Write a sequence for this structure.
């Protein structure tokens, strides 16, 4: 089984299934496909079904789209608690994951994942206030009921879906409640997250389109 991923410093979607696979001790090879450099997009188009990472390759099967990859893993490894064990929590975990997949566009656009960077105060609170209050409602509500450090007690796929949000909040030092801050700290403390971060910090590639200076200059120019 092989997971194609993007640059670890920047590729928020790649981080999600990678965390699931590492945390649940699923053996896999990984291959990093650069999101920068000459012809990076043509190369990505050539190697992936839709021109995006992550992609999971397994025994001739090629699966794009993060949620589809995670669902495939959950079916292939039913003994690993990738989703919560009880049906109600599982439904809520899938709901939160789908919400992350389809929503929170303002924070995704204004505050790209950039693990090595620290830009406190660079993202205007006005721009992301609705997303932050949506996150407080969704995650805060689940955490209040949780019997552990994660959304549904132990770490599951829904937490992997929100890991890049934790990273964005840290890079841009965005104000959130103590409850969310503690939750994000639990994500950062995962061995799997630490392993990803260590590798990300060794990278030196720059993806211009994911750098805050570039994004804000583009916004200002039009
Ligand atoms: N809907 C896709 C999104 C994947 C995605 O946007 N991946 C980014 C890297 S984090 C990418 O491949 N970008 C290439 C591009 O923008 O052309 C998923 O859920 O996997």
């Amino acid at each position: 089984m092989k997971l194609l991923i993007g640059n670890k410093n920047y590729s928020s979607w790649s981080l999600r299934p990678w965390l699931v696979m590492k945390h649940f001790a699923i053996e896999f090879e990984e291959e990093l496909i650069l999101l920068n450099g000459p012809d990076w997009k043509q190369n990505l188009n050539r190697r992936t079904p839709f021109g995006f990472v992550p992609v999971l390759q397994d025994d001739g099967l090629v699966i794009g789209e993060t949620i589809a990859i995670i669902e495939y893993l959950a079916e292939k490894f039913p003994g690993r608690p990738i989703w919560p064990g009880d049906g109600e929590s599982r439904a809520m975990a899938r709901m939160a994951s789908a919400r992350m997949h389809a929503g929170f566009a303002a924070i995704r656009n204004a505050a790209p994942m950039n693990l090595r960077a620290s830009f406190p105060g660079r993202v205007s609170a006005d721009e992301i206030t609705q997303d932050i209050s949506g996150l407080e409602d969704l995650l805060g509500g689940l955490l209040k009921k949780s019997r552990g450090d994660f959304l549904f007690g132990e770490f599951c796929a829904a937490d992997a879906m929100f890991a890049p949000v934790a990273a964005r909040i840290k890079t841009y030092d965005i104000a959130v409640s103590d409850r969310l801050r503690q939750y994000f700290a639990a994500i950062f403390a995962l061995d799997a997250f630490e392993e990803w971060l260590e590798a990300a910090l060794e990278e030196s590639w720059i993806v211009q389109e994911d750098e805050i200076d570039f994004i804000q200059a583009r916004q200002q120019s039009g």
